[in-house]
Amino acid sequence: QVQLVESGGGLVQAGGSLRLSCAASGRTFRWDTMGWFRQAPGKEREFVAQISWTGGSTYYTDSVKGRFTISRDNAKNTVYLQMNSLKPEDTAVYYCNARMAPYDFWGQGTQVTVSS
Question: How many CB atoms lie within 10 A of CB 56?
Fold first, then answer.
């Protein structure tokens, strides 16, 4: 079994920062990628950011480029999402994703709320 445990969500004012963490435990793999998705109320889950586990290549959705930074610690099986200059439209439940094709694993989600 694989477990992904997120932490670091919370309530912050617009312009503020939060750092999310996601630790993988249990039967862990050499992932292809780890990343973050988010789901706002009434909307579908959307991709936020992704990092390759070996080369460290990163990808971001356009709306967070320049504000969010994804990083990883392979030794700790942990991925981070540093979120700066947060906006109310960033409010969502953020989910950690770990992928080893063809399998996807998900965390339980952590709430991020940005007040205006």
Answer: 11
